[in-house]
């Protein structure tokens, strides 16, 4: 992968995008009737399905109950056919457990859990096809699912990955870029207040570039939030037409 | 076992203290606790003390087949072990959330930042590579495990030497350290993690939280950097909202802290190298000579003590003279056994006098052996009960009637016991 040119001299990336351009985001809400909330989201070739159950009474060990807010239970899994090599375990390995933890943390910050004391909210996310930016796609899908379930949130949570190549930040990395040795930063943002719900970065990056990178990630997240907002509004319109209001 | 929850009082107290910019151990907001690095006799073994947090790292290596997609790269393996020894909250065997978090963070901090040249670990491409395994064991949990673990892991890796190998045709020979000097790993840079804890929705920030502070914090931000001011990984955790400015500020603080810690690590490594070169004794036994578990070891507290000496002197002057202590063990009631009776104890100077006395007495006894035992016993009783009563009067002035009797009989008994002993001799 070493010889791969991630950003051409003309300023185009491997898949023909500009540096700050996001991949195409397509989403649908309410894809399952059984669940309280569900959503399907495609970001380029990365596809994710999110399902939300709750808020409901605590299941399993009651000792985890919190008297002042709801607990959020997240499970992240990848379909065995989601990557180029077939995955043996869809969930339960270290990376997926960590991803579940991060999702949980992101939504604990965003969902108004104090409205539902002694209860539990389950968020299940499954990656159907993986092409980079798994975390951010999961967060975006789960946000739509939580909204579909009617659980109040402080704001949309939008996530995006950003890479850094030739002194230029690249928004919304695909798999080829991610594995090409780019230092990447994943950021989950509540766009209205500019608050960062989760920040994660791998690989080396000089301190001086951090600010530009975070800045670029925030802009990208705001772009995602616009798309999500549109999806929600469109979904509501469809539903209201169906119910005859 | 679940961790005992913190009481509301304690929680409020801690938060209030943080609001007032005070910390329990007297540190400033951006201060680290004292870091101490010690090495074992073997290469690749080190202990790191971060205040009371104590962590051990051990590096080992073996020859294995490489991964299919990377045929000419060595394998790095990291493992953090949270044993119940460190804290009762840690359970054996189960992968807890904390353990996953720490393990992944360490992996990201050291592996993804490519601080070790994995290609130099290749022996025969596609067939044999070195697998370097780093085991980090938590020995005592007093907060900020991540920083301690990252320091320990990178120090151990720097300290480690792998055996030299030779290839002749298809044969791979691993030389023992006696035959050829072991080779250090090639390390490009040293990523060190610095943790920041946030309180009151991110209003207050502390570096290097201790265990108590970790329990009341809202969120944590871990930044791993090297001394070239390159960020190797960032991870926020806990449900807090950060602002961009906070992250930037943290990264600036981290760069300062990292350069300090790197300096410390290289100094420790240098010292160890010198000690080994000089052929002097090295290892834990030398570096921690005075730390016995039973000793009441007190660290010097970094709390302001302005007029403490004066006040202490004042109290000493005003206080009454201390009661004469009873040097010999006292049996409080008849029929009660005493552990260690008859043994010499080594408590102080008075003891010396006492033993001298008893020596004299014994001489007396020898000379007066033929005389009646009663006399001997009587003498003993009077002596001991005297001192007894003095002490009793001072300690329990409200109940003087009952106790002397008891103690009298007790000491009587005791006297009897001692004389019996002496007779045996």
UniProtKB/TrEMBL annotation, chain A:
Stored CDD domains: RNase_PH_RRP41
Subcellular location(s) of the protein: Cytoplasm; Nucleus, Nucleolus; Nucleus, Nucleoplasm
Keywords: Acetylation, Cytoplasm, Exosome, Nucleus, RNA-binding, rRNA processing
GO biological process assignments: nuclear mRNA surveillance; poly(A)-dependent snoRNA 3'-end processing; rRNA catabolic process; rRNA processing; U4 snRNA 3'-end processing
InterPro entries, A to Z: ExoRNase_PH_dom1, ExoRNase_PH_dom2, ExoRNase_PH_dom2_sf, PNPase/RNase_PH_dom_sf, Ribosomal_Su5_D2-typ_SF, RNase_PH
Pfam families reported for this sequence: RNase_PH, RNase_PH_C
Gene Ontology CC entries for this record: cytoplasmic exosome (RNase complex); nuclear exosome (RNase complex); nucleolus; nucleoplasm
Protein name: Exosome complex component RRP41
TrEMBL record, chain B:
Compartments it resides in: Cytoplasm; Nucleus, Nucleolus
Biased composition (Acidic residues): 350-363, 383-392
One GO process term, biological-process aspect: nuclear polyadenylation-dependent rRNA catabolic process
Gene3D superfamilies on file: GHMP Kinase, N-terminal domain
Chain intervals with Basic and acidic residues compositional bias: 364-380
Lineage: superkingdom: Eukaryota
Cellular compartments per GO CC: cytoplasmic exosome (RNase complex); nuclear exosome (RNase complex); nucleolus
Ranges of residues in domain Exoribonuclease phosphorolytic: 32-163, 189-255
Molecular function via GO: mRNA 3'-UTR AU-rich region binding
Signal peptide: none
Positions of the UniProt region annotated as Disordered: 320-425
Keywords: Cytoplasm, Exosome, Nucleus, RNA-binding, rRNA processing
Protein's UniProt keywords contain Nucleotidyltransferase: no
Protein family (similarity comment): Belongs to the RNase PH family.
Database matches in PANTHER family: EXOSOME COMPLEX COMPONENT RRP45, EXOSOME COMPLEX EXONUCLEASE RIBOSOMAL RNA PROCESSING PROTEIN
The name this protein goes by in its record: Exosome complex component RRP45
Provenance organism: Seriola dumerili (Greater amberjack)
């Amino acid at each position: 992968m070493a010889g791969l040119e991630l950003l051409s001299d003309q300023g185009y990336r491997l898949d023909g995008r500009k540096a700050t351009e996001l991949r195409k985001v397509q989403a649908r809400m309410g894809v399952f009737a059984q669940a309280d909330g569900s959503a399907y989201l495609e970001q380029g070739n990365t596809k994710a399905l999110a399902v939300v159950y709750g808020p409901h009474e605590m299941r399993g060990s009651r000792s985890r109950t919190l008297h002042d807010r709801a607990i959020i239970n997240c499970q992240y899994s990848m379909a065995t056919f989601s990557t180029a090599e077939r995955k043996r375990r869809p969930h339960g390995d270290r990376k997926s457990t960590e991803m579940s933890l991060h999702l949980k943390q992101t939504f604990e910050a965003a969902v108004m859990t104090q409205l539902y004391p002694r209860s539990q909210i389950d968020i299940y996310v499954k990656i159907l096809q993986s092409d980079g930016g798994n975390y951010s796609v999961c967060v975006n899908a789960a946000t739509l699912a939580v909204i579909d379930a009617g659980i109040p949130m402080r704001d949309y949570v939008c996530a995006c990955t950003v890479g850094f190549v030739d002194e230029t930040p690249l928004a919304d990395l695909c798999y080829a870029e991610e594995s090409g040795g780019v230092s990447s930063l994943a950021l989950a943002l509540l766009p209205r207040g500019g608050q960062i719900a989760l920040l994660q970065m791998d690989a080396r990056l000089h301190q001086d570039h951090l600010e530009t990178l975070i800045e670029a990630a925030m802009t990208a997240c705001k772009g995602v939030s616009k798309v999500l907002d549109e999806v929600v509004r469109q979904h509501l319109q469809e539903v209201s037409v169906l119910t005859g209001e | 076992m679940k961790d005992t929850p913190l009481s509301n009082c304690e929680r409020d107290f801690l938060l209030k203290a943080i609001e007032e910019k005070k910390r329990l151990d007297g540190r400033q907001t951006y201060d680290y606790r004292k870091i101490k690095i010690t090495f074992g006799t073997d290469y690749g073994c080190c202990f790191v003390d971060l205040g009371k947090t104590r962590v051990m790292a051990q590096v080992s290596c073996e020859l294995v087949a490489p991964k299919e997609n990377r045929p000419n790269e060595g394998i790095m393996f990291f493992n953090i072990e949270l044993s119940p020894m460190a804290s009762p909250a840690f359970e054996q065997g189960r992968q807890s959330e904390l353990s996953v978090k720490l393990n992944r963070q360490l992996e990201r901090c050291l592996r993804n930042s490519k601080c070790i040249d994995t290609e130099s670990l290749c022996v025969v491409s596609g067939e044999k590579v070195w697998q370097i395994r780093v085991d980090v064991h938590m020995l005592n949990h007093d907060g900020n495990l991540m920083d301690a673990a990252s320091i320990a892991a990178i120090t151990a890796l720097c300290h480690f030497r792998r055996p030299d190998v030779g290839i002749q045709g298809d044969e791979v020979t691993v030389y023992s350290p006696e035959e050829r000097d072991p080779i250090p790993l090639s390390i490009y840079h040293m990523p060190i993690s610095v943790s920041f804890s946030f309180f009151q929705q991110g209003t207050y920030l502390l570096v290097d939280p201790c265990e108590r502070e970790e329990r009341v914090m809202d969120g944590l931000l871990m930044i791993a950097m090297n001394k070239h001011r390159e960020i190797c990984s960032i991870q926020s955790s806990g449900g807090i909202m950060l602002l961009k400015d906070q992250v930037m500020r943290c990264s600036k603080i981290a760069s300062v802290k990292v350069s300090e810690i790197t300096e410390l690590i290289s100094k420790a490594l240098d010292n160890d190298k010198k000690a080994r070169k000089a052929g002097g004794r090295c290892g834990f036994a030398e570096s921690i000579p005075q730390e016995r578990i039973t000793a009441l070891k007190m660290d010097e507290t970094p709390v302001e003590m302005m007029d403490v000496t004066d006040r202490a002197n004042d109290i000493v002057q005003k206080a009454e003279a201390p009661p004469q202590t009873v040097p010999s063990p006292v049996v409080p009631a008849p029929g009660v056994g005493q552990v260690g009776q008859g043994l010499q104890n080594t408590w102080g100077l008075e003891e010396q006098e006492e033993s001298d006395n008893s020596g004299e007495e014994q001489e007396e006894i020898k000379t007066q052996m033929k005389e009646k035992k009663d006399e001997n016993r009587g003498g003993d009783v009077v002596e001991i009960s005297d001192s007894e009563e003095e002490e009793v009067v001072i300690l329990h002035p409200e109940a003087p009637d009952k106790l002397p009797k008891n103690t009298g009989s007790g000491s009587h008994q005791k006297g009897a016991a001692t004389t019996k002993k002496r007779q045996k001799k």
